[in-house]
Sequence to fold (786 residues):
Amino acid sequence: MSVLARSTAVARPAAIAQRRFRPGRVILHTFLIAMSAVWVFPLFWAVYSSLRPVGDTIQHGYLSWPSEGLSLVNYQTFLTQADLPYYYLNTLVVAAPAVILTLIVASMIAFACTQFSWRFNLTVLMIFTAGNLLPPQVIIVPLYHIYLNTPLPMFGSIDFGQFSYPLFTDNNLLYGQYLGVTLIHVVFQTGFATFVLSNYMKTISKEITESAIVDGAHVLRIWWNIILPLCRPALAAMATLLFTFIYNDFFWALILMNEGNKRPITSALNNMQGEFFTNDNLIAAGAMLAAIPPILVFIFLQKQFIAGLTLGSTKG
Amino acid sequence: MGDSSEAKRVRHAASGRIMVPNTGIELPLNLDLSRRDILKIAGYGSLAAFIAACGGGSPGSSGSANVTAKGGSVSIGSNASDPGVKKGLADIVSAFTSANGGTKVRVNTVDHGTFQNTITSYLGGTPEDVFTWFSGHRMRFFASKGLVAPIDDVWSSVKGNFTEGFAASVKGDDGHVYAVPTDYYPWAVFYRKDVFAAGNYKVPTNWDDFKSLCAQMKKDGLIPLAFADKDGWPAQGTFDIINLRLNGYDFHIELLTGKQKWTDSRVTSVFKKWSEITQYYSPAFAGLKWEQGADQLLRKQAGMMVFGLFISDEFTASGSKADLDQLDFFPFPDLGTQYDAEKALDAPIDVFMMSKKSPTLGADSGQAKAFLEFMAKGSTQSIYWQSSPGSIPTAKDTDTSQFPALTQKAVQIVSNAKRITQFFDRDSRPDYAGPDGMQGFLLKYLSNPSGSTSSLQGQMQSFWDSLPPE
Fold:
């Protein structure tokens, strides 16, 4: 808040110098400051709680000045007890392959549907787009049974400290595996990715593809060497969006996994709650830590992120 | 497998006969066994050697454990996820491993809320051999669905270590035993000793004294009864105890399992009685979490709170030993009915059960049963109690001298109770007890407790009738 106040204080003399004081502007800025305060307040509250030891808030309530001072003790407790790096890794081994696979599959479909004319290309595109409208909850029960009845071979595992990624399974089933959750993410994200990528590819003129064919390039080569490099901004935007979607998802891991230690980062937060007693300050600290990776992704890729929001909105 | 008697037994088994150790008796054996047959044979007792041979461990030598096996492996599905109780279970596991010939134990820990919400898909999928669960309707439900295995053989060797109340709490509808009780905690009326001393208050034993104490506290500027019902379930604790005192254990259980009607005049009388104390509740209780209600008691803003023993967790977390030492409780006052003599109360019991669909149970059943027997020991339960002092061991041979006064008192009031209930949401269907059902109805009642409840009771009954068969 103080940063906000300071920046407006700095900005004001310049504004006054340039134009006359108008009541409309005052109302506008009061409104804007009030709205941003409403948005910032919950975040500020979470940070404030996370910095207070739980005994302090029990004795004096949340609406009080910290009598014992602020400390990082909750963060320390969470980092030492919650096995955080392990759960970050759980999310990563599901999310990273899912994003890559989705982009490969979706760009292939979009490529085939937009760069070539064949009988059902529009129908196929429509089916993939319509797939977005299907709520995942509808298919939980059949999917659960499919996963339970799909046998997979066991080829050992890739171990990394206490972390272990089974190839392809550790119980002969698709159920309860990282791979299973990755696959269902691919299935559900492909529709959206295809929709966006095909709209982008429509802006690439067909002459490029046609001249490549004349030069004797194979279809796969056109896709890989010509179309994909041209789609780089779209792919980067999609990768950012998909990663955030999958990172925030807890639903599939809940239904399709039975082992607590394979579940994603969000379950590390739940693990810190007791059967009855919950240390809300500790959970606030954990939530802050769990929010770091998507925030980092956003900061580093925000150009693509914002481009992604309007991607494919016009046919060009 | 190197020793010769082991090899002999295997040879015997291969030739279609099996030798019972230390008896010289040989039994015919059909090797074409289904898993069910193996369980059946294990159930006959005195065939420990058979299981031991299957498990690949050294032959069992302990006298009483005749259905169990040493060595081998076993898996545990656990909802003990927060670091304290997780360590408690880990300590038990390592004690079990060293006591049971190096049995390899794999623990799958799932956080408490998720474990509960996904229990049906968990038990129907690939569950672990044994798992943590609750007594009451929730136990009997999965038993009648055939998702858990009966453990009468384990129970017959450990039942001497439990009171009759506990024995009744682990029986399924078919009369078989399905669980081993491990810990419990009672519900009562909690207060601070120093607040009672300062106000010269006396512990009330009957309803009129209780009400006049509330009135006195209000006059003295206290919230007489801390109450926090944001999560919906705390109100059910008060409903349970008033119904038990007014209408008795049998009616309560029948009502919660649909054998009595919610429109019954006896239910009306519960709401009427309850309305006499609702004026003493915390302001804005519908928005308070239980921790905030407990804080009112801790900060001497409130006089009493009808709650579970785990309220002490909040006092412990405050970091102030002085506050924890002031915490005390008394049983809910008598209401002057014939059912006062039952001294019934809510004392939810946590249990360990054996899942029928575990893919490894065929090989591990001896070790699973050994683990369940191990959990029935007072010494084992004490290990868990160290990490979770809010829950009390169930075994008779537990060393109670180590307990603080509060826990000893809790043991006392539960052993005085002639009937024990498991709390509303464990005694009734989960979908009926939940936010769409009774939690919502009770909040509605509490928003206008003095009004007529007949239409609300009609809604309760029609909601029950609208639920699909379980």
